[in-house]
Amino acid sequence: MTVDTIVTQGALAQNCYIISAEDLCIIIDPGAEPFNITSRIAGKKVMAILLTHRHSDHIGALPFLQKETLAPVYEMSNLKEQNYSIGPFHFQVIFTKGHTEDSLTYYFEKEKMMFTGDFLFHGDVGRCDLEGGSWWKMQESIHKIKCYPDDIKVYPGHEEATTLGEEKKHNPYFKD
Ligand SMILES: [Zn+2]
Question: What predicted TM-score, i.e. pTM, was given to this entire model?
């Protein structure tokens, strides 16, 4: 299984991720630049499009890709906190509200990776002062994610990847 990162240009530089297993793939947060995404997935069947939350910088290319691929869209409104399997892709959905009411994290246990959207960044957490944001819920989410193993690689919605262990040690919002 491989992870490909597409960073969209512009002020909001957002990370779109493509997870591939041979000729199958899933897309996480198609923020913008649909042609950039379609060229990277050329020849692969898109099994699903996963959304971490519906902020415009994370779903800009969604309408185009839905039409183009006919892949089902997974998001808070049709997911529960449980395990899912889509073809060769197995992941757990963890609700991580706080940045928004619909913020969630996709955790691939076997591959030791999680996709946190705008919940968790390297050394930071998402802002909670936008519509639907809640600092109280953010703290609950941080508390929840602390229970997961240190060696998980964290792929956030913006900027560089990190590990959960690194965040437990150095992220100021993870201090008790
Ligand atoms: Zn956001």
Answer: 0.96
> How deeply is 136 buried, as exposed, middle or buried, from its count of CB atoms within 10 A (0-12, 13-18, 19+)?
exposed
Alpha carbons 56 and 176: distance in angstroms, whole number: 33
Strands 113-117, 120-121: pairing kind: unpaired
What distance in angstroms lies between residue 56's CA and the mean position of ligand 1's atoms? 8
**Cα-to-centroid distance, 157 and ligand 1 (Å):** 8
Residue 26 in contact with residue 86, Cβ under 8 Å? yes
Cα-flanking dihedrals φ and ψ of residue 122, to 5°? -65, 110
Q: Which domains does the chain have, with CATH numbers?
A: 2-174 (3.60.15.10)
User: What is the per-residue pLDDT across 14-63, written as a single tens digit (0 to 9) for each?
Assistant: 999 999 999 999 999 999 999 999 999 999 999 999 999 999 999 999 99
Q: Ligand 1: distance of its center to the CA of 99 in Å?
A: 7
Distance 25 CA to ligand 1 centre (A): 24
Helix (H), strand (E) at residue 166: helix 164-170
Distance CA 93, CA 108 (A): 9
| Element holding 111 (H helix, E strand) | none
